[in-house]
Amino acid sequence: MTLRLADCLPFRSVRHPVLIACRRAAQILLGAVALLALALPQAAHAERLKNLASFQGVRDNPLVGYGLVVGLDNTGDQTMQTPFTTQSLSNMLSQLGITLPEGRNMQLKNVAAVMVTATLPPFAQPGSQLDVVVSSMGNAKSLRGGTLLMTPLKGADGQVYAIAQGNLLVGGAGASANGSKVQINQLAVGRISNGAIVERAVPSFQPENGLLTLELKTTDYGTAERVVDAINRNIGGGAASALDGRVVQVRVPTEPSQRVATLARIENIDVTPAKAAAKVILNARTGSIVMNQEVTVQDCAIAHGNLSVVINTQPVISQPAPFSGGETVVAPVSEISLKRDSGSLQMIKGGASLTAVVRGLNSLGATPADLQTILEAMRSAGALRAELEII
Questions:
Q1: In 162-312, which residue ranges form alpha helices assigned H by DSSP?
Q2: Is the pLDDT of residue 162 over 70?
């Protein structure tokens, strides 16, 4: 009797010996297929084009301005040490029709000079609202509870593009008394949600002669070629062409509504990027080491040992003999010890996967700081097939 695999699986309640054996064979077969799928190398993951590239000319614009924060609870700038705060307040009051006596020294504790920053997104129109970040530039202790007065925000060309004003939200908290101080997070920086109103729009980007430039975030000739193939396959007509390993030129319709629809299609095209170059990132400040999947090592032998010098200084008191007329002298005595850890020769087997590389480096038992030196030496010896980048 011949049974198909599909005929065996549904009959879970049947107790016939042949069906039971068939179900067990099917379960073993499915488990083997699942393990085989895990063992095979995974195919490269396709990403949307909007994650790999951006349209040239469609970008954010930074804004910056100088202003005053008022209403602080005796945590503002010390005006004697920050004269620009007093000068700014005098200029503001004069514009409001208030004249202060000359030579009058104002002792204010609830005013702080701040820098206001924001980001103007592309295609923002007058009336749009922006989030702003307010940062103290004097010696204010805290901006908590303060109110930002009307501050013009300028772009790189010196033109005013937005006006900021509002109550600050400071995420930190703190208290001090009798020389003791407790503080959580940063108190000198605050944020105002929708705290700025756009007053001037950046000229909208218009493609020249119907040609739009698409710029990849990472230079790679293979990825640029795949992007061109994907765009031409979805839009057709040879609309895209690569200028180099980073810039792709795309021909789009001149009519605005059709151009928007075409760009929306281009952004959602799935492209499988080419394999990145093997790279190891070393952070000299924190000792962090990050490497990508393409890093490989060749067979090599490594010996690593640490040399430590310990200097211990203790005071020794020397007292004179009785009735000798001498004085008690305190002299420091130093003890110097040198310790050298034994560094045995370790054999690192070559590996073509990230797991093999990590396993080989862990066998050395070295700290991340030591691994930085070891990786540099391995690259110089040609045993590490990767580019080292120190940040």
A1: 221-235, 256-267
A2: yes
